[in-house]
Design a protein that fits this description.
mainly alpha, 2 strands, 219 residues, two-stranded antiparallel ribbon
Length: 219
């Protein structure tokens, strides 16, 4: 008896694997090159710290990995810190799909965060089931409004979106600084520097110390 030849993999599976490989190849190469360049910089700077240490890059990357993924709380903190980056990256990606280079993700995020914070402070004392959705909507509206400005200028005046979005990033930074040190500055006795009052309605924590539901919103 002769063994039957193995059935070929379905075309759909092969196509999916090829697409997954194509999508993962460029990010993998980028990460690898970043690690190599980082290792070179760390190695060249080691004499300035504690003499030549050929293993210093490996020690640094080990500390980086342990700090980011070495425990449940470390992993949760990594995900929490990645959440705004994921959201901003998705927002910028939409513009890229349309052939527009939105470099204003930072400013749009800052203004959105400012709007959400202002709404949450104004809703202090209101039940969380009402305050949280309204604050989230305010945050989205703030980012939308800041992104509308370069969009409007691009559509009606031809101003290049790269220039206007970069410039608006700096305006957003100054706007947040003004608001936190002015209209939104806390008034309680515990406020000894520029900061807002505490917010009574916070996103519910699902895991760890601060793994809030915003993780699910991003994903």
């Amino acid at each position: 008896m002769t063994e039957q030849a193995a059935a070929p993999a379905p075309a759909a599976t092969v196509s999916w694997l090829q697409r997954a490989r194509a999508l993962m190849l460029l990010p993998a190469i980028s990460i690898l090159l970043a690690l190599v360049v980082g290792a070179i910089v760390i190695f060249l700077s080691s004499p300035l710290i504690n003499g030549w240490d050929p293993l210093l890059p490996l020690k640094a990357y080990q500390a980086l990995a342990v700090g980011a993924f070495g425990s449940v709380n470390a992993l949760v903190n990594t995900l929490v810190n990645a959440t705004p980056l994921i959201l901003a990256g998705l927002a910028v990606g939409i513009g890229f799909k349309g052939g527009l280079f939105n470099i204003g993700g930072q400013g749009q995020f800052l203004v959105g965060a400012l709007a959400a914070t202002a709404a949450a402070i104004g809703l202090n004392g209101v039940p969380a089931i009402v305050a949280l959705p309204l604050a989230l909507v305010a945050g989205m509206a703030g980012g939308l409004a800041w992104g509308f400005v370069p969009g409007f200028l691009k559509a009606f005046t031809g101003a290049h979106e790269v220039v206007t979005t970069i410039m608006l990033n700096f305006v957003a930074i100054q706007l947040v600084s003004f608001a936190i040190g002015g209209p939104l500055r806390g008034t309680g006795p515990e406020v000894t520097f520029d900061r807002t009052d505490d917010i009574s309605s916070m996103l519910p924590v699902l895991i760890g110390r601060n793994g809030h539901i915003g993780l699910l919103l991003a994903f």
